[in-house]
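Hi everyone, sorry if this is the wrong subforum. Our group has a chain we'd like a structural model of before ordering constructs, and none of us has done structure prediction before. Sequence below.
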Amino acid sequence: MYDLNDLVRKSISLIDYQLRKRGVTLSLETSEEPLFIRAAYSSILRGMLHLFLDIIKGFENKGFENRESNKEVRVSAEQRGTKAVIEIYDNVPLSHSRGSRYEQCLPDQLSGFGISLVSKIIENEGGIFSFTETTRGRAFKIELSIVEIDSFSVERGFRVLVLDDEEIVRDVLAGYLESIGHDPVVFGSPIEAAEFLRTDVCDIGIIDLRMPEMNGLDFIKLIERDLPRVRIILLTGDIFSIESDLLSRREKLMVLEKPLTLRKLKSTLKFMGEKINEKNKG
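Answer:
Right subforum, don't worry. Here is the predicted structure as tokens:
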């Protein structure tokens, strides 16, 4: 699982240069609360990139270039009921976006970019994609099922293993965990943390993916072997990596992108606490 807000920001960062190069102004509004989803990270990101590239193609239309208005794209991500909703608007009018790519291509015939391809990608991940055109511009909407966490309240504090090679990160996390009633056990060395876990236990592990002594993936395998019920929060500065994508699909692991906000960490701990309490009651 991962926060859809992070994916939206990542997709924009990857396409930002192409937009600025063409004089396109982009505005972004993401949800203040995390939008945790289970859909494959790489697939949703691929769909977003195809969609942005199709928008760029619309702006490159010669008819649009002769218009006096600015090129604008507005992006938002928010929760609506049980869905995480991404909405994207541009000001490419109907007369400049129609063409063979829209009128003649079916999803299985597309070899490049296009709305049909985006729709197929989103639907394959259990989502809904919709697209409308008007004389003022185009509107795109992606809906994905969200993992609900708002109804949970923490029944007890948890013992939380914090493993990060950056001292400032360890200190901030430990202080925050204590302030909300948890018991942090802090390590800067995965080897020392592994030694600790041979004789002790924890409920949740907050682990950095990239560490000099031992890769975070290897450490995760180690503690899952010794503590199969532990819940893991993986911190990474590269949420687009293959490892992050694969790990985000695992039930007991959530991938969070650095820099991490304490608000997002609190929501993640609430969700994991719910699962731990459900297991204990069962």
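For your construct planning: The chain has two domains: 2-145, 159-281. Residues 159-281 form a domain with the Rossmann fold fold (CATH 3.40.50.2300).
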